[in-house]
Amino acid sequence: MDDPEHARLRRMVSGAFTIKRVEAMRPVVREMAGPSGPVRGDPPRRTGQPGPGRLPGPGPAGHRPDARHHQAFGAGTHHCLGQPPARMELQVVYPALFRRVPTLRMAADLADIPFKYDAVIYGVYELPVTW
């Protein structure tokens, strides 16, 4: 017998992901792929960027509480499905962390933190902290 929680989660899955609906899309995908078969190449990584004046030029973004139109989770067809749970986790985790360790702070200058400029996912290689 299924775990009741698993059954509840299955009921929440959109009908768009049923086998019947996915199979119905197969001819459309084949037509779009053309006679040469599936489209090949790297996935688009730098799409949906904001227009001029929305954010400062390229480079590390730093902390800007007013940066509401950033591309951390993509936009449009490149919108990350993990955005809502990731935002919720951050809204819960950071306040809890700073409540439990109120003296937590960076142990290095921002200029000394090695950023991942060449990675698919932007971030830091390490972030030394102290408390």
TrEMBL record:
Signal peptide: none
Matching InterPro entries: Cyt_P450_CS, Cyt_P450_sf
Name of the protein: Cytochrome P450
Organism placement in taxonomy: Bacteria, Bacillati, Actinomycetota, Actinomycetes, Kitasatosporales
Protein family (similarity comment): Belongs to the cytochrome P450 family.
Region (Disordered): 29-70
Any one GO molecular-function label of the UniProt entry: heme binding
SUPFAM superfamilies: Cytochrome P450
